[in-house]
Amino acid sequence: xxxDEGNDDLNKGIYVSSRGFDAGASQKGNGTAxxxxxxxxxxxxxxxxxxxxxxxxxxxxxxxxxDVLLIVIGSLWSAAHGAGWPVLAVVxxxxxxxxxxxGDFNITNDSIPDGALTAEDFQTQMNQYALYYVYIGLxxxxxxxxxxx
Length: 149
Known about the structure:
- It comes from Priapulus caudatus.
- The chain has helices at about 5, 45-50, 55-60, 65-105, 120-149, and strands spanning about 10-15, 20-30, 30-35.
- It is of the alpha+beta class.
- The chain folds into 2 domains: about 5-55, no CATH class; about 60-149.
- Strands 1-2-3 form a 3-stranded antiparallel beta sheet, with no helix packed on it.
- Strand 1 and strand 2 (about 20-30) form a beta hairpin.
- Helix 4 packs antiparallel against helix 5.
- It is elongated and about 75 Å long.
- The two termini are about 50 Å apart.
């Protein structure tokens, strides 16, 4: 058995073309499927064909009511998961405002200007923001779990 004859089995598989799939076909020529190892394409006609456009209703014509319900529920959970990122941006913006507020506090001088945060207030607010991040993360985790179920 020659070395090239053994590699012929590696070239067999399932190839999908515009005419459907062919199990056990070998790939020759420009990538079209052939059952007997010959190139069956006609000057690249398959590559120039456009795929047929179908409507959304045609795509779901075999879906049951349960399938449609699960798709709608998954889409709602997906929207909830996607809404977590803007919420994180808002919380991060509020947290950076807190850094600015504490920056107005002068440690060398015992006077606290109006609107400046003390160290204790700053720590309390940072703890609150940390909890916000945890809650948003948990909410996004739950939403991502339910969007794929």
